[in-house]
Structure formats: C-alpha cells, structure tokens
Amino acid sequence: MRPVGLPGFAVRPVLDAAVQILKDADTVQRLWNSVPEIEAAEIAYLQRAVAEQLYLIPAAAEIGFMSLAEMKKLYNGSFVRKGSYLRATFYDALLVSAPFGICPSCYQRTVSTLDHYLPKDSHPAFAVTPVNLVPCCSDCNKIKSTIQAASADLQLLHPYFDNVEDGVWLKATVIESNPPSVNFAADPPAHWSEIKQGRVKEHFRVLGLNKLFIAHTGRLIADIGFRMNRLFASGGAVSVANHLTEEAHTRRNPAGLLPVKNSWQIAAYAALSESEFFCAYQHKTEYD
C-alpha cells in the first residue's frame, strides 16, 4: 500500500455544488437541511480514521433528511456521471490524486475508479465525502466490495491515513523449483502494534496480493534469465548475487522520490540475491 495525500477539499463544497444542480426542489431542500449532519459525520470520520477506529462507525439507513437510496443516487447519478459538474470538479480530482496513476491499495494496476472505504451501501453519510473516496483499480474495488471490518486489526489499510513504509513487512521466499519461483508473505516488524500488524496481514490477504505478486515475479524471472546466465558465465554466482542486490537497492531508492521499503520487486530481488540456488541456476533461454 502506498499513501496518498488527503483530498484538498471537504464535503461542504461538494454539497454546495450538488444543491445548485439537482432539479427536484424537495430533494434539494432535504439535502440542504442535512448538511450539518453530513459535516458532523465527516469530522467524526477524520477522528476515527486517525485513531484506527473506522470500524466503529455503525451502518445506517439515512443521514439527516436523506435516505440511503437518495445518497447513493447522488453519487451514481451526479458525482460519477461523465459530463457532470460534480464529476469534473471533484470526482476527477480524486481520481488523479494517486502518484503515477497507480492504485495505492495494490500498487500494481492503474487507477480507474473511486473506492468507498466505508461502503456507500451502508454508510449514506459518506457517499460523497472526499476522505472516504479513495482512488483505486477496478480489481481492488471489486474484491473489497462492501467489506467492513468487525475489529480494529481487520481494517484494510487506508491510503489517506495509514503509512506502512516505516518498516519492512513484505517478505519473499525463493522456491527451489524448475524454473525457480517466489512466494510472498506479510510479515510485519515485531515492534509494530498488534492492530497495525493485523491490518497489514488482512490487507495482504483480502486483496490477494500474494497471487498477484507471484504472477509478476514469474514473468520477471523469465525476463532476466538471459542476463543471469551471462553474469554467471562471467563472474559466477557472486556476480549474479551482486547484480540482484543492486536491483533491489535501486528500487528502494527511486530517483527524486522518498525511499521505499516494500514492493514485490524489492522483496523478490532481495530474496533472489540471497538464494544460492537461484544465483547458480542455469536458465533455459532461446538464445543460449
């Protein structure tokens, strides 16, 4: 997971714009009368998020004078609809907020939608609240669906509030097979709180990151096979290990960006560099 900066706007500008474009006078009036409660819910959300307690916010059937169905309609019919003012002004701004346009939840696929961290199907107060709308790939969005944690340690990571780059938690293990493969696991630092450790493990499990990372690493191993053979021929297993170590270090220190401690590439290259089996493995390539 990669952090994303908090949205540059709160829910009030969204609601102010909504009451200007909605056509039904009764809906406009009820939405306007609901603004104080929606803003109060946003404040509570921020407080709960910082305290890792978003799971404590209960499901509801309405917010203020607006029903769950009406808030979902506001999101689907106005906030998301292409060509609408709300889409152009707010939705699209959130969509492009993820660095490099990469989904912060898996950090692999491209952003294509917004995910309601607390599902809009059960939390009408946050249907159009920016801090609850996270840029996301369609796969992570579908996997997460309407999941809501039952305890603090089962909450998925929230890109706006959580930072898991203060320690190495993603580990890889080389499988001595033919061809070699790599398996991944979430193994957080022991000094982290039990809640933080649990959340990292749950995020990794629910989003199926092991399967995703294994697929990418399989392709990586195939792609670098020719180079590994050349390095082994010129300098033996030590030459291979040194190259792989350098590749891991390069990805830990990307040019112009903050250091990175966790990615499947870092974990894979580090594990491969430490594997005597892999460093001495003779890859079959078409150009041998």
Task: Walk me through what this model shows.
The protein has 288 residues and is mainly α. It folds into 2 domains: 11-149, no CATH class; 170-279, no CATH class. The chain contains 9 helices and 6 strands, in the order ααββααββαββαααα. The strands form 3 sheets. Strands 1-2 form a two-stranded antiparallel ribbon. A hairpin with a 5-residue loop joins strand 5 and strand 6. Helix 1 (11-21) runs antiparallel to helix 2 and helix 7 crosses helix 8 (264-273). The chain starts with 10 loop residues before the first helix and ends in a 9-residue tail after the last helix.
Quick description:
48% of the residues lie in helices and 8% in strands. With 288 residues, the chain is mainly α. The strands form three sheets. The chain has a two-stranded antiparallel sheet. Strands 3-4 form a two-stranded antiparallel ribbon. The chain has a two-stranded antiparallel sheet with strand order 5-6.
